[in-house]
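General statements about sequence and structure are easier to judge against a single worked case. When preparing material for the folding task, we compiled for one chain both its residues and its backbone structure tokens. The amino acid sequence and the backbone structure tokens for this protein are reproduced below:
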Amino acid sequence: MTTPRIDYGALFAAAPSPYLLLGRDLVIADVNEAYLRTTGRTRGDLVGQYLFDAFPDNPADPAADGVRNLSASLHRVLATGGPDTMALQKYDIPRADRPGQFEERWWSPVNTPVLAADGSVAWIIHRAEDVTAFVQAREAHHRLPAGGVADSREESMETELYARARELQHLNDELRRAHARERKVALALQEAMLHSPDLDRHRDVAVRYLPAAGSLNVCGDWYDVADLPSGGFSVAVGDVVGHGLKAATVMGMLRSALSAAVRAVDGPAKALEVLGLYARSVHGALATTAVQTVVDPVRRRIMYSSAGHPPPVLLHPDGSGQLLDQATDPPLGARPEHVARPQAEVRYTSGDALVLYTDGLIERRGEDIDAGLNRLLDALARFPRVSPERLADAVLARMDVSGGAPDDVALVIVRL
């Protein structure tokens, strides 16, 4: 028996509840018939419009907070990748038959993300049940003379439920504010842990760090730039398994150890060997990946070694990119005994760019890593001659992680 093909567009259009489909920019992409009937609008009125241009706050109501509350909910969906159920909302809407006038409306909204293959939010489904008739009927009932004990008991129960709902909304607002403060503190901590004094002396280096979507900004990815006694400088990135404060603590220890090692030993491979030995004594450090490079500006060469990390890219001015994948070894602690790590070198010319990153930039669920590498090479090829700062922003945008990704992202770009 052949299963009939489901027309999801027809299902959306015929759904009895009012639905609105929003892009990440909160522009209305589609709307179903129930929503049009409920709001008295046409598709031409809404599709392609910014949500809050189509539905602004009622200017005649000084207490109107519908735009603020709905915007906060939608941005929580974008940040967390999870659905957000809102408390009962008073959100008046413009009258289609009387321009400039608004009519009172009460809604019970739910905002649900539609995720792309990489786990990021591609769309938001906004469902808004119109409960205006219920709210107005309740208010009218309360204005009537009491009809006896039953009416009094019913009114008492409704008052209690409404008070509890308002209390829950207040507590949710407090929790969100506390969460925002925690994120701010976490971000300051992460920035302090990643600060590199030597980085300030390099004008042709751009760095970016993006925490995983929904995290508190404290994660296990790191980058480092260090000036060396030889006159060259080193660039490294690494990735500790996991997220949160525990991963960040391990990250801080390993980053400091590798930064010290590359200054004290000869070459990136030796530095990773030292880091591997140290990692055996740090709980949570095993399976960490890292790549260490050393740039020699006199001989115009890059020496590199990788411990299970995605390969750096040497981007040439003509847009071609070279993967530095000739010195790859397992992650830290993957072998039971100490083994010397491989090292390779490559020549560079003036105008080349060295690009290091963590796997959150290229890896997507259900996709081969080669597809991610090819996508990165394509993104780099489009902007081979721009400044490192502009290139970093362009790459993050092309890789679709500017607004957050399922995993942390660290990115370093050096113009050579």
Observations:
- The mean pLDDT is 85.
